[in-house]
Write a structure and sequence with these properties.
The complex is a heterodimer. Chain A is an alpha+beta fold. In chain A, 31% of the residues lie in helices and 30% in strands. The mean pLDDT of chain B is 94. The chains are: A alpha+beta, B alpha+beta.
């Protein structure tokens, strides 16, 4: 994270965010390694159970409170790391949805401010996962197995993890560049036949700069250019609730029919959240083949090697996306068995893999 | 896991000590070990209509900087913490160590440099506190490490800590208010005196407090509390004193400290163990060999030494001197990077004379003086 994702100079200021109890081992290690590199590193930590109290008991004003200190803080630091490590991933499942949403919306101010600063090159950010029993439980694994799984996906046990991620960057950037010349994709799989117009949109490679682990290429499709049906075999976990085996029908980029084996009402309520919620904000291919199973964590799931995912709601402005929504619901379609992808009529993907390597492109762009 | 005493302690800290008001910004500062109490504090700050701002520390972060930081990093003051000090209305800080000796082997010069970098922050919050812009309270959450220092089991130590805070009382706040009134009376009495003489085993010390303020410490800035302190006239301290309890400073311990003063300055310092460290500390700067504080411990629920100054200096029936910096509100003029409290037990065979009159004997003020 320090040498590949953040690449800071001595004297830079780095803030580590996370949950103090479950994240402690990684937080303390990251702080130590940053300190050894001459970075002014400090922590801004949450404690499990506090936000739950706020959502359950806080007044409207307290729910919507945005700390002016923290907003000023964001402007003064060069970089931040978010460590996701939940003690209990379902602690908000029974909370009042509206109150939880108001509290999250208030926090979005930080996310937006940070996004703007990242976009202007004033800030670097990276998010990662620190394995906990809670996440392992969601993945139907022991903590030990889950740790192996996560760290393998991060390639931290490789002789040269930084070299690995640099090479991934070169490969994925070449792939993104190649996809950039495609006008229309057709995705065919079990109960799935979807055409997606991506002409004129920018594809971006994600190779460990902002997420660790990483491994996907993504864009925002043309808003009116998504047609057909798609079945998402993996459950989607959103706001502590699950949507299982969702099937969507789209016409001119809008969802016109939505079914799910579990959580159908919830899915439909999300689609009605606002105007953009039934539109498509993202289309992407997961290309980290160390991630070979679904674990109920979107950071990992959306990168499962051999899958594609589509997000309903908010698109990426920087990639040409125009859909706007408070929603960004990632839904994952497994293309490993029967999947085929056609680019402008040509078969480019079968059974979970692109059929040929991308054309060698320029070396990975080391953007700030 | 839930202990109703956490709820009572949170009640007292938020309602009485810090007197949190609607709209206040309140930092809650402690380590993850204090999580059960932090959650109760968080809840009560919300109930008071204020905004809780958790500042959660992790064991090991300070050690990282002390071990691996360069001078620039040792000197660095986090602007976000400066902003806290400038912006918040209340600070509630809880000591909750996992290991009180974690920093014992850190290079003393690096530790001193690191401590100095925090001085402006401390001075600034004390300044805002003195101006009435900021309220703060320092308390502690019982941990295994603190229990170990006190040579107790955690359960015994919890009883000790919560007992010292009068949390077993049906109405702890009323008890603290009552106790505060008593401390006010004793402080007023002490303020009428000019000169004190303390006589105990190995101790015959004279000092002048004329013109200085005696301040009753009643549970507002330390909790639990219970002492009355002043800053003696700097040049007036004469004679010798033997401290009953080990002096603990920066995770180091000095046993059986004996000091001899002439004209306010330490001229002889010996100890059964840790004498070299004692001498180093006294040589730290000019003010380190003078007395910055003279005080009586008045909390009778604290009866034993537990290697934690927050409690030790308040043991009922003791007095303490601090070498080093004085609290400005006492009128004390001594300034130093050091403030080291050393405690002398006066509970048996001891006397205190004020202006020639016996006012205190065997750990108690006599009739008419509180």
């Amino acid at each position: 994270m320090l040498d590949h994702s953040l690449r800071l100079e001595p004297g830079n200021v780095l803030r580590i965010e996370g949950e103090a109890v479950a994240g402690a081992p990684l937080i303390v290690s990251l702080h130590r390694e940053a300190t050894k590199r001459g970075i002014h590193c400090y922590t801004a930590l949450d404690l499990n159970g506090l936000k739950e109290i706020l959502v359950a008991e806080g007044s409207d004003e307290q729910l919507e409170f945005v700390s002016p200190i923290e907003l000023r803080e964001l402007d003064a630091i060069d970089a931040s790391v978010t460590i996701w490590s939940e003690v209990n991933t379902r602690s908000f499942t029974r909370a009042d949805t509206d109150r939880r949403q108001r509290q999250l919306n208030a926090q979005r101010q930080f996310a937006i401010r940070r996004r703007d600063r990242i976009a202007s090159g004033e800030h670097r950010w990276c998010g990662t996962l620190s394995p906990t029993e809670g996440h392992a439980q969601d993945a139907d694994m022991s903590l030990e197995d889950y740790e192996d799984f996560v760290f393998r996906a991060c390639h931290v046990h490789d002789d040269d993890p930084v070299g690995h991620w640099r090479r991934v960057g070169e490969r994925l950037q070449a792939r993104a560049e190649e996809l950039g010349s495609v006008r229309e994709l057709r995705i065919v799989g079990e109960d799935t036949d979807l055409t997606v117009v991506v002409e004129g949109r920018i594809w971006r490679a994600a190779y460990g700069r902002q997420n660790v682990p990483d491994g996907e290429v993504y864009t925002s499709p043309v808003e009116t250019g998504v047609n057909g049906t798609i079945r998402f075999g993996f459950p989607a976990v959103f706001g502590g609730s699950e949507i299982d085996d969702a099937r969507l029908e789209l016409e001119n980029g809008r969802v016109v029919a939505a079914e799910a084996a579990g959580g159908q009402d919830y899915l439909r309520s999300l689609l009605q959240l606002d105007e953009g919620a039934s539109g498509v904000g993202e289309i992407a291919f997961g290309l980290n083949y160390e991630i070979d199973r679904f674990t109920r964590n979107i950071l990992l799931d959306e990168k499962i090697g051999g899958t594609m995912h589509m997000a309903l709601g908010m698109g990426f402005e920087a990639l040409g996306g125009q859909n706007r929504s408070a929603l960004h619901l990632d839904l994952i379609c497994d293309l490993r068995r029967e999947g085929e992808v056609y680019a402008d009529g040509e078969l480019v993907w079968r059974s979970g893999e692109f059929l040929h390597d991308p054309q060698p492109a320029r070396p990975a762009e080391h953007v700030g | 896991m839930s202990d109703s005493r956490h709820e009572r302690l949170a009640d007292v800290l938020v309602g009485f000590c810090a007197a949190v008001q609607e709209g206040d910004l309140v930092t809650l500062e402690s380590s993850t070990l204090a999580a059960p109490l932090l959650r109760e504090l968080y809840r009560r700050v919300l109930q008071a209509g204020a905004q809780p701002l958790p500042r959660i520390a992790l064991e090991g972060l300070t050690e990282n900087v002390l071990k691996f930081g360069d001078d620039d990093q040792l000197d660095w003051v986090n602007p976000a913490r400066v902003d806290d000090i400038e912006s918040v209305d209340v600070r509630i800080a809880l000591a909750a160590p996992a290991n009180t000796k974690r920093l014992s082997n850190v290079d003393a010069a690096r530790q001193a440099r690191f401590d100095r970098s925090a001085e402006p922050l401390r001075n600034r919050y004390l300044e805002r506190a003195a101006a009435g812009e900021l309220r703060w309270v320092l308390s502690a959450y019982p941990t295994e490490a603190a229990a170990q220092d006190a040579s107790m089991s955690l359960a015994e130590y919890e009883d000790f800590v919560f007992g010292a805070a009068f949390l077993d009382d049906p109405d702890p706040v009323a008890r603290w208010e009552q106790f505060g009134e008593r401390l006010d009376r004793v402080a007023e009495f002490l303020g009428t005196k000019k000169e004190f003489r303390i006589v105990a085993d190995g101790t015959d010390l004279r000092l002048v407090t004329e013109g200085r303020n005696w301040i009753p410490s009643k549970g507002k800035e330390n909790f639990p509390d219970g002492e009355i302190f002043t800053g003696p006239v700097e040049s007036s301290v004469e004679g010798e004193i033997r401290f009953t309890y080990p002096g603990v400073f920066n995770a180091r311990e000095v046993v059986d400290v004996r000091l001899r003063f002439e004209a306010g300055e330490v001229v002889e310092a010996t100890a059964a163990r840790g004498e070299e460290f004692l001498r180093e500390m006294i040589a730290m700067d000019d003010g380190a060999r003078r007395v910055g504080e003279f005080a009586f411990g008045m909390n009778d629920a604290i009866t034993m030494f537990t290697r934690n100054t927050l409690y030790d200096e308040k043991i009922g029936g003791t007095m303490h001197l601090a070498l080093g910096t004085a609290y400005p509100e006492t009128g004390g003029l001594n300034r130093s990077a050091l403030h080291w409290d050393l405690v002398c037990d006066l509970r048996s065979g001891s006397e205190v004379h004020a202006d020639g009159e016996l006012v205190y004997s065997n750990g108690q003020f006599l009739n008419g003086s509180g």
